[in-house]
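Repro case for the chain-ordering regression, as requested:
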Amino acid sequence: MAEKAIEAKKKGQKSSEDYTYVGMVFHRLTRHKLAMVGAFMLIFILLFVFVGPLIWRADPNAQIEGLGGLFNPASRAHPLGTDDYGRDVLARMFFGGRISLFIGFISAISSTLAGAFVGLVAGYYGGWADNILMRFTDAMLSIPTFPLLIALASVLGKGVWQIILVIVLFGWMTDARLVRGLVLSLKEQEYVEAARAIGASANRIMWRHLFPNTLAVLIVSTTIGIGGAIIYEASISFLGFGVQAPFASWGNMLQNAQQFIWNSPRLIIYPGLAIFMTVLGFNFFGDGLRDAIDPKLKL
Amino acid sequence: MDNREVLVDIKNLRTFFYTEDGVVPAVDGIDLTIHRGEVVGLVGESGCGKSVTALSIMRLIPDPPGKIIEGEIFFHEEDLLKKNEEEMRAIRGDKISMIFQEPMTSLNPVYTIGDQISEAITLHQKIDSAEAKKRTVEMIHLVGIPEPERRFGQYPHEMSGGMRQRVMIAMALSSNPELLISDEATTALDVTIQAQILDLMRGLQKKLGMAILIITHNLAVVAEMAETIAIAYAGKIVENASAKEIFKSPRHPYTYGLLTSIPKFTEKKTNEPLPAIEGMVPSPYHMPKGCRFNPRCPFVTEKCREEEPEIVELTPGHLVRCFHPIES
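-- result from build under test --
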């Protein structure tokens, strides 16, 4: 090992010993084919959503007057055609994507943090705290999500933040279980006892010593969670409780298009394909990240 | 020896563990005195309660299942068992520090060693981060790690076991504790590193003047380090005397058995097998009646099976818990 590293250094190459942890994970990630496919899909989507509108400056909510403006096929004036209101589909794809991604990111990160909090407390304190929190988690997992979701959406009102709240409310449980399981084994580690022996408080041990050790797993879970949240958003919007017209999201574009599925199938295909690509991209990337973070796996 | 100020005075400490299979009296009436600046060895085999004693002093017994049911632990004439968690936190790592057996896992893998030593410092001292860093580098230097500036930014996995144990010692000593508890701190290290770490601890003890409680099953370790030695057996101290006395004239049959079962290089080679103490450590769920050592004792009498001996001072400073102590 050591000779190899020295030799590699002489040649100006990097050996595994030169990398920091993050550097090593990145290095492994770049060699993971599926993760790279996912990464390229995501980069493409991000460029599409954020750089696209700078190139194609069209108002996503402007309608073309007259019947002739509706359901136009792709043309020079409208690269992806127009929808049932005569709006530019490409522009709506850009802005809808921004909203979908925003909801995906925020709700996946928030539900991971919420789950991590519950898991940390349950796992660290154990005993009755663990029992109460985990039974609550089980209860939440056994609630049929969709009917409640619809009920909640109608109570909370419709909008981006409401959707995020609803997704977080129903999305933290798996992370809570994941973190609890991890913490149960992590808290037996000697460094936790050592931290106690230098006078660290329970809060400090949980957040400073245990939480960072669960991050590797949580990052993977969040990455895959973003894809899930985007699907959730699409489903909620598809049912008509999500992002409201005239604002676009990929989900409500799908919902809008379902009535015209026989006449203008492309209205379904564009947002559908975008969601499909984004979710698949996050899943591929998340899988790769999991492999790259796992120190026992040699790539 | 005894005119030094008493730092820690443990009186009749009893720490029990309540498990599903029954009650384990891990520590059952231990008395131990540590003077200021004294090095005390607590020796015994696995399960005799020596680590539990250490954790009791730190008040780090996992509860449940463990519970300190009786006794007093005076530290500067204040009973640690009467302090609340917050007061204990202020003492841990500041006045009393502890180093553990496993240097490989005692450091958090996600932080640099500099971060971890600084944490120990800033938890107890109100100083800014630049000051803390300076102090950390000093500590790394003090425990004999070369290139402290560079080592400051390294992660635990970049260091060997011996180096990590040095880091642990730096963490433990960063607030100038009055008592350092070393719980089998050298057991997981190989012999040459063990010697280095013991050397380091002895040197630092001379320099900083803290008291050390060395917990070990290795008599060679205490022989090298300790002034006073307490021998524990099945949750009780059976013999307590100066190191010299213990090695020269052990009075308890258990101590005697331990010492004679160490192979000696100076003796002529014989074909005799190495003497060993007969039998096994009693199961914690079924402690024998009377003296706890009676089933294994070569000098056992009827009295030993019926009555439990008290610990008595045979000669000044030499305490033994036995009805039939070996003549010196």
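Ordering looks correct now. Chain B is about 30% helix and 25% strand.
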